[in-house]
Write a structure and sequence with these properties.
CATH architecture of the largest domain: Alpha-Beta Barrel
Organism: Methylomonas rivi
Low-confidence stretches: 1-31
Helix content: 25-40%
Structural class: alpha/beta
Protein name: Amidohydrolase family protein
InterPro entries: Amidohydro-rel (IPR006680), Metal-dep_hydrolase_composite (IPR011059), Metal_Hydrolase (IPR032466), Metallo-dep_Hydrolase (IPR051781)
Order of helices and strands: HEEEHEEEHEEEHEHEHEHEHEHEHHHEEE
Pfam family, one: Amidohydro_1
Shape: globular
CATH topology of the largest domain: TIM Barrel
Number of domains: 3
CATH class of the largest domain: Alpha Beta
Keywords: Signal
Distance between the termini: 66 Å
Number of strands: 18
Strand content: 15-25%
Number of helices: 12
Length: 429
């Protein structure tokens, strides 16, 4: 009888395996396919150049291809023909204060910003990017004791910390202590290191206006020494991080340039030494624009922006990169909490030559997409573009955004990581 029982057991096992295999096949057949969307429009800015009458194929959370509708339509049943519209990568805001000022991340995303870098405030790990705002953080601004920004925003806290707007470095801080601060920021997810070299006193500057903390301290304010800035830059570069400097006038600019700071976090308010500014631009220093929010600074701001633009125009043929990175300082009450058409407009007019040419328009759009992504250096393949395998961060507006930047403030479609956040278009069949 035992042989019979063994045969029965084998048969039962075979039947069980077949049943399991059948269930697996049924589950596989029932599994929903990866979602896809095919977006077609008269104009597609891919982060580098403009293509006309093209389609963007999104599969899952990635861009798969840009091509002709006839070639791509068979690969996706969910199709949107936007017609007279412009498709672009989601915008990247390189200078924001979203967390510190408690601005709603959803509102920022809905208005066309899919990636933002907070500069100053609590140090947070990278977050979002899949249906929510991708948010990066530099953490607190490294500053001198008694200086900016703690003297304005936290006047009762002379030290600050990793959860504050600023972190003060004492004049007596040793090289190892300064480097340890940078190491801590980098180890905890800082996207860059931001420092303040703000002596105060610039007419019209927002930081010279009361912020509800009493009278603005008399200038000049304490700033980090040339040696301390050198230590910060050296350590940051060893850790693969750029250094951004808040600079408002020439003294801070001289220290920043002399120490090898990568980027000025603002276009400075007071007019800079034109010879030194020319050298810095020619050597590759970048400038986050923030021209709109600092418009009250007046002529010095515009002179600096003009000078930066002229140096670029004179040396672009030699391979000099466009020196401006788009930044609107989201969270300030005088600028949109999303894409800022006026910032783009000012960048275009102040950085162009005697006439505005189409390559000038492309430079400005790149500064908010592919060039901004390259500057952030997140390691995310294709960020700021619509190239294959790039994150499916996409915006679209009705009309020609290449001619009217204002349209970008009110996108008709916003996609984050392949997920539609805003969509005013109907699918076609």
């Amino acid at each position: 009888m035992r042989p019979t029982h063994k045969l029965l057991n084998v048969n039962y096992l075979a039947l069980a395996l077949l049943a399991c295999q059948g269930a697996s096949l049924e589950a596989a057949a029932a599994a929903p396919p990866i979602s896809c969307k095919l977006l077609s429009a008269d104009r597609v800015f891919d982060g580098v150049d403009v293509q006309f009458n093209k389609s963007v194929l999104v599969v899952g959370d990635k861009v798969q291809a840009i091509g002709n509708y006839a070639d791509l339509s068979g690969q996706c049943a969910t199709r949107y023909n936007l017609g007279d519209a412009t498709i672009l990568p989601g915008f990247i805001e390189s200078h924001a204060h979203i967390t510190f000022q408690n601005v709603g991340k959803d509102k920022v995303l809905e208005h066309g910003i899919t990636t933002a870098q907070d500069t100053g405030g609590p140090l947070l790990p990278p977050q979002g990017g899949n249906g929510s705002l991708r948010l990066l953080s530099t953490g607190p601004i490294l500053q001198a004791q008694g200086g900016y920004p703690l003297n304005i925003f936290s006047p009762d806290d002379s030290v600050g910390g990793y959860d504050k707007v600023g972190l003060a470095i004492a004049p007596s801080a040793t090289e190892s202590e300064v480097r340890a601060i940078v190491q801590n920021l980098a180890a905890n997810g800082a996207s860059a290191i931001k420092i303040a070299l703000e002596v105060g006193g610039e007419a019209g500057a927002p930081w010279m206006m009361p912020h509800g903390h009493g009278e603005v301290p008399a200038a000049p304010w304490n700033i980090l020494s040339q040696q301390q800035v050198g230590w910060i830059v050296s350590e940051a570069h060893q850790l693969g991080k750029k250094v951004l400097a808040h600079v408002g006038e020439n003294n801070g600019f001289q220290i920043a340039y002399g120490a090898g700071v990568d980027t000025l976090a603002h276009m400075p308010c007071a007019a800079l030494d034109p010879i030194l500014l020319h050298e810095a631009v020619h050597d590759g220093m970048k400038f986050i624009s923030t021209i709109d929010t600092l418009a009250s600074c007046g002529q010095g701001l515009y002179d600096n922006a003009h000078a930066v633009g002229h140096v670029y125009q004179d040396h672009a043929a030699d391979g000099l990169e466009f020196p401006l990175i788009y930044g609107s300082e989201i969270a300030h009450d005088n600028v949109p909490w999303g894409a800022n058409g006026e910032e783009l407009h000012l960048m275009l007019h102040l950085s162009s030559g005697e006439t505005i040419e189409f390559p000038d328009v492309l430079n400005v759009l790149r500064s908010a997409t592919s060039a901004a992504a390259a500057h952030l250096d997140t390691g995310i393949q294709g960020l700021g573009t619509l190239t294959a395998n790039a994150p499916a961060d996409v915006i679209a507006v009705k009309g020609n955004a290449l001619e009217r930047f204002k349209l970008l403030e009110y996108p008709d479609l916003v996609m984050s990581g392949g997920k539609l956040v805003i969509n005013k278009f109907s699918p076609t069949r």
